[in-house]
Amino acid sequence: MQPKLLAMFLLLLSFCFELKAQGDLLVTPIRVVFEGKKQKEAINLVNVGKDTATYSISFLQYNMNEDGTFTSIEKPDSGQMFASPYLRIFPRKVTLAPGEPQVIMLQCRRSADMIEGEYRSHLYFRSEKNYKPLGSAINDTTLLSVQLIPVYGMSIPVIVRSGKVNTGSSLSNLSLESRSNLDQYLKLTIHRTGNISIYGDLVIEFIPTQGKPINAGGVNGVGVYTNIGQRNIVVKLNNTTGKPFTNGKLKVQFVSKGDAKSVIYAEAELEL
Length: 272
Description:
- This protein is mainly β.
- The chain folds into two domains: 3-9 and 16-162, Immunoglobulins (Immunoglobulin-like, Sandwich), CATH 2.60.40.10; 167-271, Immunoglobulins (Immunoglobulin-like, Sandwich).
- Helix content is 5%, strand content 51%.
- It has one helix and 19 strands.
- It has one helix at 3-16; strands at residues 20-22, 25-28, 32-34, 40-47, 53-60, 62-64, 70-72, 87-90, 93-96, 101-108, 117-127, 153-162, 167-178, 184-194, 198-208, 214-224, 230-236, 248-256, 264-271.
- The strands form five sheets. A five-stranded antiparallel β-sheet has the order 1-2-4-10-8, with no helix packed on it. The protein has a five-stranded mixed β-sheet with strand order 3-12-11-5-9, with no helix packed on it. Strands 16-15-18-19 form a four-stranded antiparallel β-sheet, with no helix packed on it.
- The longest helix has 14 residues, at 3-16.
- The protein is globular, with a radius of gyration of 20 Å.
- The protein starts with a helix and ends with a strand.
């Protein structure tokens, strides 16, 4: 693909999807959910490197920990079911020249004996060249730290929902930690209830005692999966005022992601 065409392709994808790149492979979308009557999803791959690369595609299973990191597992824990038995991928191996895109198809085949709730596995793209570790199973958060583990590839979550599903959320344990004059960190816990995971953005606002509210940052793409009931978050606040946040309150909202109209899952305030 010519450089100009590749640039246009990536620009179009950036408008339509979130992009996830590790090493020389770019993948979109970064999260797939099969619910309702949905049966197929197209996964777009692009080799953004300078060399031809081959990737094998399979499934891995992970548990989410309460700090947002992941642990590789072979058997599902309590409250967790694997999606991979109900998923098919084609093709399972791709070779991409520099700048070359490829679409792989992911198909969901539900069975009549599936119980209500959520099934999850991670679609894994493994490079067959011995690069340095690219980092797999990232924290399900766009702006939090990446957990590096000794594998040569990357993965995205694939979720299958069956029957009647429900979820709820609340926020607690808000506290502010100051590590320097302007480096302030908000700590909080997201609680999840119901039989499916919850996924959204954290939006943080500082409301001074006097004056207008100030955008204090947030975290995009925060997930709490079904194997845990809560997740602990630490967020560095975005402060451009030149002085610490004091004499006011921090308002935190956990809102839905990707919907035309945002839904507030939960909100809480911390008096300063």
